[in-house]
Amino acid sequence: MLLLRRLSKRSIFPVSLGGSRSVLCLGATGDLVDRIPELNRSRRFTMGENKSPLMERARNIVPHLETTRHKGQAGRIGVVGGSLEYTGAPYFAAISALKVGADLVHVFCPQAAAQVIKSYSAELIVHPLLDSNNAIIQIEPWLERLHVLVIGPGLGRDRVVLQTVAELIKICRQLQKPLIIDADGLYLITHDVSLVKDYYGLILTPNAIEFCRLFGNDRSRIWEMMEKLGQGVTVIEKGLNDRIYDSLTTEKFECPQGGSARRCGGQGDLLAGALATFYFWALESKQEISPATVACFAASYLTKTCNSHAFKLKGRSMTCTDMIEQIHVVFEECFEHKKE
Predict the structure, then answer these.
(1) Which residue ranges does the record assign to the YjeF C-terminal domain (predicted)?
(2) pLDDT of residue 47
(3) Span 152-173, mean pLDDT?
(4) Annotation: binding site for ATP
(5) Binding site for (6S)-NADPHX: which residues?
(6) How far apart are CA 270 and CA 79, in angstroms?
(7) Neighbours of 190 (CB within 10 A)
């Protein structure tokens, strides 16, 4: 309630985020948008702050494991990505979403990537549709069933595939589907920001280079650029300290450093997949008023801690697969509900 009082000048209105559900979103009034830079508040957390407010809120969104729940209630996630060259990225994102706790994960990829991704895991549902002639017609019916969609891991830059993805983003907007855009999906956005402007429920996950492409090198203008993305868009800037920019509250959160000096490929994919599951849980939570921010914090914390745990075991030879193997340990340690 403290947040609602502090933002008393904002309008509060329901926004549907899939199915028949609605959540309350805080929207700025016109005169408040002009003052975004001066309202910017930054909060910093450290790895030692296992009891920080955001950490407590992240734990609270995790659903209890109950025998009365059925398959799909803990999350049905979609990953759109993959290409002939990049089959690992969509796999890492999908399997991470599954291991964090989603029940079902679908991967939509080009035909050349499908068999390879299937060979990595029998747990994933793989659709070799992304480069088919009627891709949109075949993929669209699946979108209604999914709770959160991740677009970008291993996508590549094939012109036809990117055109298909652009159409999928438009459909997701019409469906008011919670969406996460990563990697080459961000490349598409840098060339056409209108695809995502004012997309409520959108999270962008740029690394350092992708962030510069989206926002430029002048960090003093970040909130000005956030205005161009519009209301309802959340950005998590990946780096030594992951930073979360919330366009609804105009707050910046600095996540804990953690991790290690080992920069193996696939860590961003792990984060994107974990984020999808946490995001669905946050949206389902009846008490969370900033689901995107809390989900970003949880995914960042989990990824950094998985890196730290895996590095202690494998050192310089650590890979993303080693990090994924630590998801259970880290989740149990940091997020799982403790038995009384």
Answers:
(1) 54-334
(2) 52
(3) 98
(4) 238-242, 259-268
(5) 154, 207-213, 269
(6) 12
(7) 12
